[in-house]
Structure formats: C-alpha cells, structure tokens
Amino acid sequence: MGFKKYIRIISGALFVLGVSLLPSQVMVLNQGAPVTVTAKVDSTHITIGDVLHLTITAQYGDTVTIQPPEMGNQLGDFTVLSHATPTFEKKGQQQIAHFQYQISVYDTGRHIIPPIAIPYYDADTLKAPKLVFTPDIPIYVQSVLAAQTDSLKDIRPPVMPPTSWAWVWWLLGMMIAAGLIYYLWQWYHNRPRVVPKFRRVKIEPAHVIAFRELDQLLNSPLLQKGHYKAFFSELSNILRRYLANRYFIPAPEETSEEILRSAIELELGEEELHLLRAVLTLSDQIKFARYIPKSEEIERAISQTRQFITATRKEFETTEIVERIEDFPPPPVEK
To answer: For the segment 143-175, what is each residue's pLDDT rounded down to a tens digit?
Structure first.
C-alpha cells in the first residue's frame, strides 16, 4: 500500500467517524508523539467567499523526520485553493516546519477545519509513518448581505433627470461658432487677389550718373540768366549724391563740414580732399553769402568737380535688375 494512499485512508476514516475530533481526542492521539503541531488561521469570522490563510507549524527533534500533510482539493467543507512551498528552520535542538495553504468556503454558518494528519518517522527502520494531528478550528461564515438586507427588494422606480437648459446654450454656441467659421472661409476664398507690380532698374556706376547730371546742368540756362545760386546749389547736390552713391554716406543730409569729416574718415588723398573742399566752400559762399563768382571761378569749380569724380570713380558694368514696387488688386471684372 502506497504512502499517499495510506494517508488518504486515515484522513477519510477520521472524517467519516465524526467529521472532526474533540480537542480531548486529538490530545489522546497526539500523546507521547515527539512532534508538536499547531494550526492557525488569520481570522475565524469571515464573509462567504473570503480566502483564509491556514498555517500549520510542526516542531520536532533532530531524530525525527516529518513529511508534508497529504492535502487534496477538499478539506472538509473547505476548498483548498493553493499551497506554498514548506519552509524549515532550526531553533536550538528543535526543528520547525511551516506549511501554508489558502482555503475558502462557499456556504454560510459554522464550519470546522478538521484535524490534519502530519506523517513522521522517529526511527529509520519504520516502514509506515506515524501520525500526529492538528486541532480542529471552528470558522463562522457570514453572508455578504447584512441581516436586514438579506431579503430581495423591488427595483426602484425610474427617475427623470432634472430639467436643464444647458443644452440650449451649447447648441447656440456651436451654431455661432459654425457661422463664424463659414464667414471666415468665404472671406478667405473671395478676398481680392494681390497682383505684384515690377519695374526694371538699371544699376549704373556713381560717376556715370554724376557726369550725366553735370552735363545736364551745364546745358541748362542758369548761368546765362545769372542764376548763380541755383547753379551752384545743383553743383553741390551733384557732388553730394555722388558721394552717397559711391561711398554710401548720407552726404545729401550733411553740412559741408560733416561731409569733409566723412571724407577724411574715408581716407581720401590730399588732392581729392582739396578739390572737394574748394567746390563745397565756393558753393556755400554763393548760396549763403550771396557772393557773385567770377567767370574763372565758375570754370575752375566745374573743372574741380570733374577732377574729383574722375579721381575717385569706381568702374563696373551697368546692371539691370527687376524691382518690385507695389502690390495692387486686379481691376474689377465687369459683369
């Protein structure tokens, strides 16, 4: 007869004889055994379906060998859900073994965890083990429902939700938002298209522009009519515009002294500075002091202007660029 079958027969016999033994009967069966066993649970009052943690502890001497209890899927009224790996420890001359199980019961009332047999050997020559039993443990199981709610009750009548006008405001807000989106979409697609306007611009060297303006001034009737102030004002402006185009300084807005200081910072030569100073000084005398120049002074000023432009010119080829000057809507389409 196998060991496991032997344990099952002993456990079955105990259950058939009385489901559980009285504590005094357990003490009689365990009397004289070299193994002391205890059993405990985490609670003796549970709710139906709760999981109980059952711990069996066996304490024995070094000459005794014990084996885990043969536990099936059912322990009296309880269902064995799982079990942990046994643990062993040594305390002085005693050995201590712990066996842990998770059990549950699915009926209310008083239930008993029956005594559990622990097999052990106290001699190496024994062929069949001896048994020591755990005390039985009463467990009280309550229903999930409270006592006053055990009976079924009728369902509650339907409840109408409270009347609210919030949905009206939500709907109105969504309609306004939709109308605004539609308006912006129509405006975007029907907006006047901007048509760019371009022009071609020639980029000429500064001295070419200055010589052309000087020739136009000499061909004007200002000198013949004796308009010396107007003639020398334009002569001075030609020089100023040339300096602005050639050296990128704000000469048209500067005074003669400021122009000369800028020319010194540009590191112009002494000869060029002398020519520029002579023309600007004579022009200021005529414009502001009403000085009447002599014919040789006029000729010398024109010559000095040409010499200064020639000495400081920078040669490069005339370039033509396309310049965007404005944006304007297209002409309306006649219907």
So the answer is: 876 544 556 667 877 776 666 778 888 899 999
Mean pLDDT of the 184-200 span: 79
Tell me the pLDDT tens digit for each residue of 92-103. Answer: 888 888 888 988
Calpha distance 136→9 (Å, rounded): 19
Task: Tell me the C-alpha distance between 283 and 277, whole Å.
Answer: 10
The answer to whether 254 and 244 have CB atoms below 8 angstroms apart is: no
pTM to 2 decimal places? 0.41
Domain boundaries in the chain? 3-143, 200-321
For the chain, the three-class secondary structure string (H helix, E strand, C coil) is CCHHHHHHHHHHHHHHHHCCCCHHHHHHHHCCCCEEEEEEECCCEEECCCCEEEEEEEEEECCCEECCCCCCCEECCEEEEEECCCEEEEECCEEEEEEEEEEECCCCEEEEECCCEEEEECCCCCCCCEEEECCCEEEEEECCCCHHHCCCCCCCCCCCCCCCCHHHHHHHHHHHHHHHHHHHHHHHHHCCCCEEEEEEEEECCHHHHHHHHHHHHHCCCCCCCCCHHHHHHHHHHHHHHHHHHHHCCCHHHCCHHHHHHHHHHCCCCHHHHHHHHHHHHHHHHHHHHCCCCCHHHHHHHHHHHHHHHHHHCCCCCCEEEEEEEEEECCCCCCC
**Integer Cα distance of 187 and 228 in angstroms:** 61
pLDDT at position 325 over 90 = no
Considering the domain delimited by 3-143, tell me its CATH architecture: Sandwich (2.60)
Contact 263, 257 (CB under 8 A): no
